[in-house]
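PT: before anyone asks, these are the final sequences, not the draft ones from last week. 756 residues across everything. Please model them as a single complex and drop the result in this thread when it's through.
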Amino acid sequence: MALRVGVIGGGQLARMMVPAALELGIDIRVLAEGPAMSAGIAATAEGDYHDAGTVLAFARDVDVVTFDHEHVPQDVLRALVDAGVPVRPGPEPLAVAQDKITMRRRLSELGLPVPDWAAVHDQDELRAFLDDHGGRAVVKTARGGYDGKGVRVVSDASGADDWFTAIAEAGGGQALLVEELVPFTRELAQSVARRPSGEVVAWPLVETVQQDGVCAEVLAPAPDSAGRIADLTESIAVRIAEELGVTGVLAVELFQTADERILINELAMRPHNTGHWTIDGATTSQFEQHLRAVLDLPLGATGMHAPSAVMINVLGGPADGDLAARYPGALAAFPEAKYHFYGKAPRPGRKIGHVTVVGDDVDDVVYRARAAAAHFDD
Amino acid sequence: MALRVGVIGGGQLARMMVPAALELGIDIRVLAEGPAMSAGIAATAEGDYHDAGTVLAFARDVDVVTFDHEHVPQDVLRALVDAGVPVRPGPEPLAVAQDKITMRRRLSELGLPVPDWAAVHDQDELRAFLDDHGGRAVVKTARGGYDGKGVRVVSDASGADDWFTAIAEAGGGQALLVEELVPFTRELAQSVARRPSGEVVAWPLVETVQQDGVCAEVLAPAPDSAGRIADLTESIAVRIAEELGVTGVLAVELFQTADERILINELAMRPHNTGHWTIDGATTSQFEQHLRAVLDLPLGATGMHAPSAVMINVLGGPADGDLAARYPGALAAFPEAKYHFYGKAPRPGRKIGHVTVVGDDVDDVVYRARAAAAHFDD
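LR: through. Structure below.
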């Protein structure tokens, strides 16, 4: 019988696991939030992942449970573990990914490089942090943020009043995370994969370009990073994976500063937008690797097909919603580009697909990838 | 709305179209012969492809119909065309692929290089052919053969009596195909793709190694073939695609003789075993290309990721049926190999998967691909 992986969540990350599962002969099953999800082709159940009964019923027929996202509540994760279901990554590492204050605290305990930070409960605590950091800082909600949501730059202690009100009303003594505004020169991302038996492998470090808090472009490998920078980011990501006991793919988003320091920004314990280039540019994609890792199978090689790979997100898409009408022009203009769409309807700002080009010269590859993706702009 | 492709037949070729469809954002639907087929994940209907009503009902919700195999009867294909459904490849080219005598006749009419052949109806006609060709020849049933089935070397006119009896009993004036026994030094395969608007692209020529009439290994590109041989095979395949009006992938199996002649052996109007290496070794796989071609979208680039790619079929698999038990050893030994399994239970001689390795040196790549695949032998 084929090995069976159950994925909670039917978004594009689950969708992109399906090709890898089909090629490797793995039986993949998805618990989707509803009908017509990105990963609908593999959906064997629909339901609410907040409900332990729904998730336990889904998990009964699989060998391991993994995730399209990090939002499954701890009590549901614990119920799976108590029922003897392998959950990868497990509740402990996911608790770190689910709460930005917990994440900062653990990374600080490990002595890993993070921006100055504090957990603040009210205006006074925020004001004190601002006074110590030149009057400006980044405030983040501890939970539920993504793609720039739940992140705000403030220069006045009243700038997060709405969030303070919300956490006070929610009760439970929640706090906001405040961080120094890092004077970074660029953003990087380092992905690794770890399996329960301990093996860890890393892909090349990449440079990421964000627009309005959303990943727009990824260059692999990150230009001018060979040697010290790449060694450092790999050692940071491997250490996080090992210390937190992450299984599956771990993506570490990083800042590089003008004085060549590296600071950890965010963690994701699943395949990540900054690793989509691996589908077309690396021997083993992050999606195949995630499946191997959560099944505790030996990990695949992470070398690149060519010296350079560039991924451009397709954000929004045509305002008339007619994605198919853009295929002929794009495919004819760039027959070497790899086009990926997620089965999602165009909508302003929405990640509906991405385009990857691989080649020898980074400037040429960047140009072609951008031009190919632009065929799908409004 | 996404472009919709309907595939008749749920075997491994349909299965391998699914990853390409998911990546490209194409809605793929399969008419499967029954439950638990290789391409079951994309099955939206189950039924008999010999029944026009079943096929017409399936085709109602797709933009184009294509195939996992060439066995759909002409009357069903005509019914689809009459109903206004785009059928690619269409009934005319498929008629050539469905009957080996029709195929030999058309290729001969086009002046393309084929072995000496004849359509024979009885022992006397077979004896005459044998007398003219040194007393030995290859006899093939005109229809229904594959993977060495329906093919037999005879050195006596009575050697095909059972088949003569069968076609006489079937009525309809059928014949057997008899061909000269070509003294080939090796076998080659040339794949191309053609879209209805006329664009044709070719992948590199490959060398194929058969065992007991079944494809066992494929080397891309075919060693020592650059220049005259590769130019010739490409021109042959392009001419066949254009003259017969093939749409989608066309694979041409060829013999190379000691005196460097090229003779056409078989045609397949669909993705073909000799092109599986393109999934991991070429910019555009034959499965993605087939989808593009049948949708009349611009075709993708066919260059290779590395100088050499070798595919080894996994035939049979472990006698105990436990494929999953072989993964850890294989994946650990060759982390750079790409493993593909079709969701089929192991059974002696059955094609249940394949392994591809790409790299710089053909001898090294052949060694590693064979050794990786051998982990799944009985």
